[in-house]
Known about the structure:
The protein is α+β, with helices and mostly antiparallel strands. Helix content is 42%, strand content 24%. It has six helices and five strands, in the order E-H-E-E-E-E-H-H-H-H-H. Helix 2 runs parallel beside helix 6 and helix 5 packs antiparallel against helix 6.
Amino acid sequence: MGLVVSRPGALAAVEMATRGGKCLLAMAQRDTTAASPNPRDLQSVGTVAFLMEDLPLTDGGRRVELDGLRRGKVVSLIGVDVLIAEVQPLDEEDPGDEWGPAVEALARYLHTHADLRSFLDQQRRSKEPMSWVNLACQHLPITASARQKLLESDPLERCLKISRGLDALLRKEKGD
Length: 176
């Protein structure tokens, strides 16, 4: 996932990740209008990510490329300007045959959106089906709250939501 980072606290977090193993926890804000989010403004489940690329921008911000490794839940969060989290990794488990409907729904959706399919093919780093589905979900036209609900759900529930949601998007686009 590519992001532009400009807030001082987020810039400091990227700097810390650069110096210390290049891992960080990417969390969404509950209220995106909060200028300086405090711990209560952040979701409790995020993505433990590897900092693949960190490029300075002319305005002082940074363009970063994150590679999601796994979901993580915040156990504790400390700090004022820069937040440091203790994170409990969340198991993905193996959804087994349950991922099939999500992958099939994704294939139907991508069949009608060749530009998105081409983009995702370039971004894909893993051959795992759930990794492919999770990558695609980052780029679907859904709200941030819907994306957060997917992140918080277990693999079986996530697959069901994805398959239902993608089929609903296709029906809406076709005018059904």
